[in-house]
Specification:
- This is ELL-associated factor 1.
- InterPro entries: EAF_fam (IPR027093), Tscrpt_elong_fac_Eaf_N (IPR019194).
- It is found in: Nucleus.
- By secondary structure, the chain is mainly beta.
- The protein has one domain.
- It has no helices and seven strands.
- β6 and β7 form a beta hairpin.
Length: about 120
């Protein structure tokens, strides 16, 4: 480390609240998604779709910008439960620091269209 401070995480002491994911019957869950490749043609202004199938199978579909071929990218993979990992959520508007348990890690890879070659 070069000794610089991340301006989003200062060196001050803050109250830390345990979030809803720590309750006996959590009303919230948190997940991470890791993908192997993100095409530049993905339209970040549009919503995508996440489907959880049989077992732990996950499919994520993201639309491309208009006029792109193909019109979307499909990622497929699976989810695995987290055991001890958490995420720190900092609300810079209110100054609130909340710790939430992570529920699952989702790892996906871009699928190739049928008939396409490497």
């Amino acid at each position: 480390m070069n000794g610089t401070v991340n301006p989003l995480l200062d060196r001050e002491e803050h109250c830390l609240r345990l979030g809803e994911s720590f309750e006996k019957r959590p009303r919230a869950s948190f997940h991470t998604i890791r993908y192997d490749f993100k095409p530049a043609s993905i339209d970040t202004s549009c919503e995508g779709e996440l489907q959880v199938g049989k077992g732990d199978e996950v499919t994520i579909t993201l639309p491309h910008i208009p006029g792109s071929t193909p019109p979307m990218t499909v990622f497929k993979g699976n989810k695995r439960p987290y055991q001890k990992d958490c995420v720190l959520i900092i609300n810079h508007d209110t100054g609130e620091y909340v710790l939430e348990k992570l529920s699952s890690s989702i790892q996906v890879k871009k699928t190739r269209a049928e008939g396409s070659s490497k």
